[in-house]
């Protein structure tokens, strides 16, 4: 019997191996990276990463761990491959270092769901939310990577279970491990349209730090080289041509053909793969057949129990398979030499043979489940389904669903729930066996998908459930579905779609006061309060809190208090909002409910009040608690975003940026509204740091999504930032360009003249000041803004609440439009200090200095400019400081025009009248050369590209009106 050799040296992959080794080197140097290796079946992905792993194990300070996803059908046990990878880390480093890296007892208890050896009896988190596992793994990897480089390899992502896919998507975007290299492999041909991995891959490929390696088929020369390695002799040209034609350049097929026995190599590629199987003796073929049903890998105990024959025959069959290269063995059990071989053998089985083997394996797996190993339930259900035993499959899926939820595999739980719904009408008494009705299960599936951030799938599940829900009865279930739909609509579609769901919840529940209805009624009333105008919103918010107190649930009451705080914040009743938020914080010690989420709102309110240092301290304190509880994503991410905003408003940009980047990574894809908010913060930080073009790129660069529909504040703030950028450019440009930028700023500021701005003046506060600044700058550029924009400024400013936190914005806007005197600007600066962003305070000092100069108080103006430069916060708004420096140098727009000499002014007037250089020279009795020198100087001072632009500028010196 011939065996198939394996080449001692990998052929045709030097470049790809070099790229992987570069990624390892980067990881060792402290630059973490993720590499996606993709290629068709048999192309050599495993051989490539095996070579990488072998080399990396020899590198001092590098720890290697790997796992492979296995094909368990549409269900799959959650985190199967991740468990193996983590166990390899424990084997390589020891249990104690991994336990220490977990940090808090709560995180260690979470990780014990995947590594039982870590269990010390600590109470684990509630069985919901995949965030727990992602955060626990992230914490361990980050801490372990401090002292050593980690190379983690996860193969065959096309077979990854839902929980593993969700985990990878999260980790690739948020992992901060300093010395880490993550290598992932998959088959692109198995990830077709609709495959759940497609969206994950698309997300990964967009991320910075993720690279892609494509493995291509071998060339003729490379096939010849592989044959030479395999056979130890120089292959003839005819042999190379034949193998190349038959193998199509796929290394695995080249290997199979090289070890074939002549006629074995005839037929299709599937025949080529099966040739190795056909050469096996009878016992070996029987082992291979059973193993093909079990999966790509099987442990010896399971194989022994499933074997239907003499033990001696099984052992002999295993030896023969190993000798022939059909199987490989390690401490975890046995695996096929290649997945293609397993697939070919499985497809070659007779249907009855396949069914019987699945039934045998299902019984064994079920016995393990019944004995307490519930992690085997998914495997049992897979085999029961393949054996066409729907009844037992249903029961196993019920157990697998409970196991998935206890392992925080929310997405897997949702998929298992969908599988139960598919089987619902094929089993007896499904509701009794599951403990809930089909509609209740649909509610749970939709809620699980929502919690997992699978918004599209969640909305689909809601729509399908509502479509089959009875027209009468099942009020709680239908209300739950509308509540989920309302949350999804508010986050991803727009607030205009909320009322329909809100009205349905209210209609369905009426005045019910039972335990199931009250939380839903409180949530609906809270949504109604937030959407209503004052004072109606305030009354509803009070009613909401009163109703929540009757529910007897800390979670429900803390949610109601948070919502009432939102209403009070909108009314500028900040102290009342803070009182509610602090009450919610003390009420909820679970670290997962609304009380902890109240911190994000508390930071926001303190930020609105200008209490930035207090906001930062409160946020970071709770952030530490969230991290210890393993909830940085769920609770810490919104807090981080609000902390970043407070730091930006305080002018502490360098401190803000790490928090901003972390919040963006944690919140990526979860909520478009948070995405909008983070975009605004980053653009604001960049703009007032003086990086104007970068700020504009963040707001309207390629790939930046539009603002979320129906979010007035987000739309106003985006417009404000773009207005600020254009006015900043105007203030730093020569006169011709300055007029163009000022005109653009006025056009963008027109958003203030909308009904939405008058209806929600507090949401338009920043745009109000930006528009007013644009008006002031336009006037300096000899432009007159439309009267309607000026009127809108006055109207919105008058409508702003007169709380000190809002008054600074209104007074600044009024002063800019009115060209207020220096005394007014001094009052504004003093009142704004401690109540408004540092940039606004410093800008008020700048306008004070400019007003002093305009009033002819030159010495006072110089002192004011000097005081601004010496201001302890001057470095916290570099853009304002830059404007001040340009003003004192006489190069800014606020000097009311370019510093032309008297003769240059005469030349410009004649140039604008259409005279040529010789005609100007004759009129002024100067030489043509002198005229040319003057014209060049004028063009440079004006920033004009040619005489036409200079003439147009001169023509507009009578304050040309500019449309807004």
Automatic annotation (TrEMBL):
The HTH luxR-type domain, residue ranges: 893-958
GO BP terms: regulation of DNA-templated transcription
Endoplasmic reticulum found in the keyword field: no
GO terms, molecular function: adenylate cyclase activity; ATP binding; DNA binding
InterPro entries noted in UniProt: AAA_16, P-loop_NTPase, Sig_transdc_resp-reg_C-effctor, TPR-like_helical_dom_sf, TPR_rpt, Tscrpt_reg_LuxR_C, WH-like_DNA-bd_sf
PROSITE patterns in the record: HTH_LUXR_1, HTH_LUXR_2
Sorted UniProt keywords: ATP-binding, Nucleotide-binding
Source organism superkingdom: Bacteria
This protein's GO CC annotations: cytoplasm
Gene3D superfamilies, alphabetized: P-loop containing nucleotide triphosphate hydrolases, Tetratricopeptide repeat domain, Winged helix-like DNA-binding domain superfamily/Winged helix DNA-binding domain
Keyword check for Transmembrane: no
Protein name in the entry: AAA family ATPase
Organism: Demequina lignilytica
Lineage: Bacteria, Bacillati, Actinomycetota, Actinomycetes, Micrococcales
């Amino acid at each position: 019997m011939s065996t198939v050799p394996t080449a001692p040296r990998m052929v045709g992959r030097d470049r790809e191996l070099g790229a992987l080794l570069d990624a390892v080197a980067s990881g060792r140097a402290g630059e973490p990276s993720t590499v996606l290796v993709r290629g068709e079946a048999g192309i050599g992905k495993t051989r490539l990463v095996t070579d990488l792993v072998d080399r990396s194990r020899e590198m001092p300070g590098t720890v290697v761990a790997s796992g492979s996803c296995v094909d368990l059908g549409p269900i799959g046990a959650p985190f199967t491959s991740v468990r193996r990878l983590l166990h390899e880390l424990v084997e390589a480093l020891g249990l104690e270092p991994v336990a220490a890296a977990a940090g808090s007892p709560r995180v260690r208890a979470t990780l014990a769901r995947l590594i039982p050896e870590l269990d010390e009896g600590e109470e684990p988190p509630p069985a919901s939310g995949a965030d727990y596992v992602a955060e626990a793994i992230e914490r361990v990897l980050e801490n372990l990577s401090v002292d050593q480089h980690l190379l983690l390899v996860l193969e065959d992502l096309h077979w990854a279970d839902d929980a593993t896919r969700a985990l990878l998507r999260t980790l690739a975007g948020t992992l901060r491990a300093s010395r880490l290299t993550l290598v992932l492999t998959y088959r692109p041909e198995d990830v077709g349209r609709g495959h759940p991995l497609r969206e994950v891959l698309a997300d990964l490929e967009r991320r910075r730090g993720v690279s892609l390696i494509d493995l291509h088929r071998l060339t003729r020369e490379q096939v010849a080289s592989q044959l030479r390695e395999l056979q130890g002799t120089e292959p003839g040209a005819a042999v190379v041509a034949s193998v190349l034609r038959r193998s199509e350049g796929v290394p695995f097929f080249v290997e199979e053909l090289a070890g074939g026995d002549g006629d074995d190599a005839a037929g299709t590629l599937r025949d080529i793969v099966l040739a190795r199987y056909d050469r096996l003796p009878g016992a070996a073929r029987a082992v291979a057949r059973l193993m093909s049903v079990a999966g790509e890998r099987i442990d010896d105990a399971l194989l022994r129990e499933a074997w239907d024959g003499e033990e001696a025959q099984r052992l002999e069959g295993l030896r023969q398979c190993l000798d022939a290269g059909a199987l490989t063995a390690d401490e975890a059990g046995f695996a096929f030499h290649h997945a293609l071989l397993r697939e070919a053998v499985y497809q070659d089985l007779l249907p009855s043979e396949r069914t019987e083997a699945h039934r045998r394996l299902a019984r064994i797996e079920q016995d393990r489940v019944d004995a307490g190993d519930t992690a085997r339930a998914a495997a049992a259900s897979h085999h029961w389904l393949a054996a066409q035993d729907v009844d037992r499959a249903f029961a196993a899926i019920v157990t697998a669903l409970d196991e998935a939820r206890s392992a925080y595999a929310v997405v897997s739980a949702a998929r298992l729930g969908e599988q139960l719904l598919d089987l619902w009408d094929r089993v007896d008494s499904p509701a009794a066996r599951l403990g809930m009705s089909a509609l209740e299960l649909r509610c749970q599936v939709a809620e699980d998908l929502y919690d997992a951030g699978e918004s599209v799938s969640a909305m689909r599940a809601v729509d399908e459930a509502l479509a089959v829900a009875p027209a009468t009865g099942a009020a709680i279930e239908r209300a739950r579905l509308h509540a989920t739909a309302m949350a999804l609509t508010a986050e991803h579609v727009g607030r205009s779609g909320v009322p329909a769901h809100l009205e349905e919840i209210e209609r369905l529940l009426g005045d019910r006061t039972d335990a199931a209805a009250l939380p839903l009624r409180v949530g609906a009333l809270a949504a109604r309060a937030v959407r209503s105008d004052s004072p109606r919103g305030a009354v509803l918010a009070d009613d909401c809190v009163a109703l929540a107190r009757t529910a007897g649930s800390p979670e429900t009451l803390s949610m109601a208090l948070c919502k009432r705080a939102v209403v009070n914040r909108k009314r500028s009743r900040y102290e009342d909002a803070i009182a509610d938020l602090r009450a919610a914080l003390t009420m909820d010690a679970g670290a997962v409910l609304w009380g902890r989420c109240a911190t994000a709102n508390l930071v926001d309110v303190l930020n609105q009040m200008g209490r930035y240092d207090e906001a930062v301290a409160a946020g970071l304190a709770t952030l530490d608690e969230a991290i210890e509880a393993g909830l940085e994503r769920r609770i810490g991410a919104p807090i981080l975003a609000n902390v970043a905003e407070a730091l930006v408003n305080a002018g502490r940009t360098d401190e803000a940026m790490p928090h901003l980047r972390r919040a963006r990574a944690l919140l990526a894809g979860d909520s478009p509204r948070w995405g909008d908010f983070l975009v605004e913060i980053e653009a604001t930080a960049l703009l007032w740091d003086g990086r104007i073009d970068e700020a504009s790129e963040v707001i309207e660069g390629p790939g930046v999504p539009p603002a979320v529909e129906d979010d007035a504040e987000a739309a106003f703030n985006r417009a404000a930032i773009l207005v600020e950028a254009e006015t900043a450019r105007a203030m730093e440009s020569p006169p011709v360009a300055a007029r163009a930028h000022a005109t653009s700023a006025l056009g963008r500021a027109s958003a203030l003249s909308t009904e939405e701005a008058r209806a929600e003046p507090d949401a338009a506060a920043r745009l109000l000041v930006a528009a007013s600044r644009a008006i002031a700058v336009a006037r300096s550029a000899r432009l007159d803004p439309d009267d309607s924009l000026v009127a809108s400024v006055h109207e919105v400013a008058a409508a702003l609440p007169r709380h000190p936190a809002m008054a600074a914005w209104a007074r600044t806007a009024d002063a800019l439009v009115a060209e207020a005197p220096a005394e007014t600007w001094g009052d504004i600066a003093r009142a704004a200090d401690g109540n408004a962003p540092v940039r606004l305070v410093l800008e008020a000092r700048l306008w004070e200095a400019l007003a002093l100069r305009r009033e002819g108080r030159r010495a006072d103006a110089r002192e004011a400019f000097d005081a601004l430069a010496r201001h302890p916060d001057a470095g916290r708004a570099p853009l304002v400081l830059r404007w001040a420096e340009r003003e004192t140098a006489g190069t800014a727009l606020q000097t009311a025009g370019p510093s032309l000499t008297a003769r240059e002014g005469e030349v410009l007037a004649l140039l604008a009248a259409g005279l040529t250089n010789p005609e100007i020279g004759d009129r002024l009795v100067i030489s043509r050369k002198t005229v040319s020198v003057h014209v060049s100087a004028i063009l440079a001072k004006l920033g004009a590209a040619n005489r036409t632009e200079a003439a147009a500028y001169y023509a507009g010196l009578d304050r040309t009106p500019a449309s807004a």
